[in-house]
Amino acid sequence: MLEKVDFRAELYGLDIARILALRENGARLMPLVRGECVSTPALEAVKQLSAPSSVQAGLYLYFSCWDEAHSMADSLENADGYFWHAIVHRQEPDAWNSGYWFQRVGTHPTYSRLAAEATEAGYGSGSAWDPLAFVEFCESARKRPGSKEERLAMVVQRLEWQLLFDHCSRGSAR
Fold first, then answer.
1. Which residues contact residue 135 at a Cβ distance below 8 angstroms, ignoring those fewer than 6 apart?
2. What CA–CA distance (Å, rounded) separates 29 from 157?
3. How far apart are CA 110 and CA 95, in angstroms?
4. DSSP for residue 32
5. Cα distance between residue 85 and residue 135, in whole Å
6. SS3 per-residue string spanning 107-174
7. 8-30: buried (b, 16+ CB within 10 Å) or exposed (e) per residue?
8. Per-residue pLDDT for 172 more than 70?
9. In this predicted model, what pLDDT tens digit does every residue of 120-160 receive, in sequence order?
């Protein structure tokens, strides 16, 4: 039976919950295209946070602190880091570079749940998650601001972020 993503910031500790409380507690719909960092207090709090680099990369990305997210993801030599790196480049937008990093990810442990959750949200991902197809979907959606396609891409991107952040926060390779 499919379990809906029930993202609760408090599960990741008081410091992370306080940071995520600065913008919708982990439920923010991040833009598909790189923008300005949306919270200077969050940026500073993540810099001070004692957490694995994969968690910090995810927090920077969540708050659209692109340069910091990119730098942190670039320092990680594992599938989680490559995954964050791929998302950062998808938002740049640089579809080719995003695809390169997704190829380095290989098959990530979050992909099966992401495929199911994305399908439940209305994105026809099929039985297996195809990150390259999602990159292309985001490329198309970002060219239609305010469209249903853009909203769906942002919803699936949030699911992707929540699942990867949860994975990184709960003791995976960091």
1. 86, 90, 95, 98, 99, 102
2. 8
3. 21
4. S
5. 13
6. CCCCHHHHHHHHHHHCCCCCCCCCHHHHHHHHHHHHCCCCCHHHHHHHHHHHHHHHHHHHHHHCCCCC
7. ebeebeeebeebbebbeebebeb
8. no
9. 999 987 789 999 999 999 999 999 999 999 999 999 999 99
